[in-house]
From TrEMBL:
This is Amidase. One of its GO terms (molecular function) is catalytic activity. PROSITE patterns: AMIDASES. Residues 27-475 form the Amidase domain. Belongs to the amidase family. It comes from Acinetobacter silvestris. InterPro entries: Amidase, Amidase_CS, Amidase_dom, AS_sf. Gene3D superfamilies: Amidase signature (AS) domain. It holds the Pfam family Amidase. SUPFAM superfamilies: Amidase signature (AS) enzymes. PANTHER family: GLUTAMYL-TRNA(GLN) AMIDOTRANSFERASE SUBUNIT A, MITOCHONDRIAL, TRANSAMIDASE.
Length: 496
């Protein structure tokens, strides 16, 4: 099979070819590997190869909805026993860290029939909305190689958009599925808290704010993979209610007419590009043409307060991660990126009382969103504040580097977050991506749908947030939008 034919199918489409004996799993794998060898030097999407394991698996009698379909893991908490993983960090790259067991999500993906042949680029410990770790370098956006693919699932997004695979593993703790989906023109769904598992090493990540799923070209691939992976494991803290029927079946029916609130205003008062505004305006018109009611409205939530609570958790979690790795692997500050150390330094100074107050606030936001959804079925807003930034555009300014190093040396980096500097710190960190953290903090399902490309042919996603457990309504609407304005043909415009 030639790549030109391979790239026209989504995952279920490729699986159908294998089922009908029109193609073999080993054949599709070799197309994916050849595509990788041809374009990955330009994309830098795949950083760890596992070709031999994949070739062996391709000759097995595979079963499941995606039997024989090439697949990529994210190099972050998607461990495959016996395959090195780096978490995007030079520390683990140097240590040649090798997990001894699969993560539960990896097991469930394998049970769906996919063939995993590599791990994708991600920022160090997944802490940024862009993918340019010192360990591996920048991940380039296939729509324009001068631009980044976003983060933290940037490598997976680039690989899917460029046609290496139709579907790849991803995770989302502050937008890390939806941000790269927006920048790379893909469909990206973040499930509700607890919908997919984190075992066997964790019961949940970031108090349930972080979830694992996939990035896809088609809505039905995302639905079918959620069918294959949803539900608790032995480590899960609670058992989320299962859907009444499979998501793949549900999306065959159009949703009822929905009342959808929308906003294009940054919740933290930062600039929103005309592209983002136009994306939502065009999406609103499309929704109305499909019989939905679209109303400009937003929940009564203090966006800066929510961002502060998110940053408190994000930075504190980073501090804990760095501390644990220092204990377990006898590494020092010199083994981590400067930005990671700065974030950890800030997070380490949060008091227990600050942290508990922050977590209690999460419940307030949940309550306000529940009340908001008494009046509206969904909430529409941009996935990102602009199209993808250029590589190197989102970085610590050169003049700040010696200041950070000096403050870190004397354990005073937390002074950067005193007084009015707190607000500026938050805006600097979230100005590109101020819209995604709401769904993480509240544990609500959210998706980025690729409905807009600007005059430079760079995509920007439309984000929808649903009530808790509302993946069904999101997927139904996404399928309706995909049918009304198909985006799969757009991928044929990528020439690398």
């Amino acid at each position: 099979m030639k790549f030109s034919e391979y790239s026209q199918y989504d995952g279920l489409g490729l699986a159908k070819l294998i089922q009908n004996k029109e193609a073999q799993a080993s054949e599709l794998l070799e197309v994916a590997i050849q595509r990788t060898q041809h374009i990955n030097p330009q994309l830098n999407a795949i950083v760890i190869k596992m070709y031999e394991q994949a070739r062996q698996r391709a000759h097995h009698n595979l079963t499941g909805p995606f039997a024989g379909v090439p697949f990529l893991l994210k190099d972050l908490h998607q461990e495959y026993a016996g395959v090195p993983t780096s978490f995007g960090s030079n520390t683990f790259k140097r240590l040649n860290y090798m997990p001894t067991q699969n993560s539960e999500m990896v097991n469930r993906w394998e049970n769906s029939g996919v063939i995993m042949f590599g791990l994708t680029n991600t920022p160090e410990f997944g802490i940024k909305g862009i993918t340019e770790p010192e360990a591996w370098g920048s991940c380039h956006n296939p729509w324009n190689l001068k631009h980044n693919s976003g983060g933290s699932s940037g490598g997976s997004a680039s690989a899917v958009a460029a046609g290496i695979v139709p579907i790849a593993g991803a995770s989302d703790g502050g937008g890390s599925i939806r941000i790269p989906a927006s920048y790379c023109g893909l469909f990206g769904l973040k499930p509700s808290r607890g919908r997919t598992p984190w075992g066997p090493n964790s019961s949940e990540a970031m108090h349930g704010a972080a979830m694992q799923h996939v990035l896809t070209k088609s809505v039905r691939d995302s639905a079918a993979m959620l069918d294959a992976t949803q539900g608790p494991d032995h480590t899960s803290l609670f058992n989320i209610q299962a859907p009444t029927q499979s998501y793949l079946e549900l999306i065959k029916k159009s949703p009822k007419p929905l009342k959808i609130a929308f906003s294009t205003e940054s919740p933290i008062g930062t600039q929103v590009s005309q592209d983002a505004i136009q994306a939502i305006q065009q999406t609103a018109k499309l929704l109305e043409s499909l019989g939905h009611q679209v109303v400009e409205a937003k929940p009564q939530i203090d966006g800066m307060a929510l961002a502060t609570d998110f940053i408190t958790t994000w930075f504190s979690q980073c501090a804990y991660t760095v501390q644990q790795f220092k204990k377990l692997y006898a590494v020092t500050d010199h083994d981590f990126e400067l930005d990671t150390l700065a974030i950890a330094g800030l997070g380490a100074k949060a008091t227990a009382l600050d942290y508990i107050h922050n977590l209690n606030n999460w419940g307030v936001y949940v309550t306000k969103m529940n009340r908001f959804f008494d009046d509206y079925d969904l909430y529409l807003l941009p996935s990102t504040a602009s199209v993808a930034p250029k590589n190197g555009e989102v970085k610590t300014p050169a003049w700040q580097i010696p200041i950070l190093k000096g403050l870190l040396k004397v354990d005073k980096v937390h002074l950067l977050a005193k007084g009015k500097l707190v607000e500026q710190l938050i805006k600097n960190n979230l100005q590109w991506v101020p819209f995604t953290q709401l769904a993480n903090i509240t544990g609500l399902p959210a998706m980025s749908v690729p409905l807009y490309w600007n005059k430079d042919n760079l995509p920007l996603g439309s984000q929808f947030i649903a009530p808790f457990g509302g993946e069904d309504i999101l997927l139904q609407l996404a399928a309706q939008l995909e049918q009304a304005q198909p985006w799969m043909p757009k991928y044929q415009e990528i020439h690398i």
